Amino acid sequence: MSDLKLKISEMTKVAMKARDKNRVAALRMVNSEIKRIEVDERRDLTDEDVLGILNRMLKQRHDSLSQFEAAGREDLAEKERFEIGVIREFMPEPLSAEALAALVDEVVASTGATEMKDMGRVMGALKPKVQGRADMGALSGLVKARLTS
Q: N or C: which end of the chain has fewer CB within 10 A?
């Protein structure tokens, strides 16, 4: 069993004992998504798989948050902010802009990428190194800028 999945389960139990209904609901939502993927794919998930799920859930929450704020639904926006906070507790520490740029330079050099057609190879090599620690859209922009310069 994944260490991250085990940690989420343990935190759910702690929240239940503390009778923190909002936190329990958010953690159960995370657990149910993990379980759904396990059942759909019929396999045990690794920490990397769980991080991918958490990353996808964060992205969904951010999209919903922006829509709720635009619609003036502060009650729903507050719920999304809370869920984002709970999910972020299980994410690794984000990389700084300098560390991310250095990593991009390192991977571009190691793959021998020189033009835009090499972008897929660079992104493929970067993804496992930054999983859950950087926004892939921003990372794509950095790689694109590096390859066009």
A: C
Distance CA 27, CA 86 (A): 7
The candidate with the shortest Cα–Cα distance to 137, out of 90, 87, 100, 108, is 100
Q: Residue 78 contacts by C-beta under 8 Å, 6 or more apart in sequence?
A: none
Question: What is the spatial distance between Cα 79 and Cα 22, in angstroms, rounded to a whole number?
Answer: 9
Q: What confidence tens digit (pLDDT) does each residue in 127-138 have?
A: 888 887 888 888
CA distances from residue 88 to 20, 51, 73, 125, 135 in whole angstroms, order as listed? 18, 10, 23, 24, 13
Half-sphere CA count of 11, side-chain side, radius 13 A:
19
38 with 84, same domain: the answer is: yes
Amino acid at 94: P
Entry pTM: 0.79
Residue 32's alpha-carbon distances to 51, 64, 94, in angstroms, are: 15, 19, 25
Query: In the 8-state DSSP scheme, what is residue 92?
Result: P
Pair 104, 80 in one domain: no
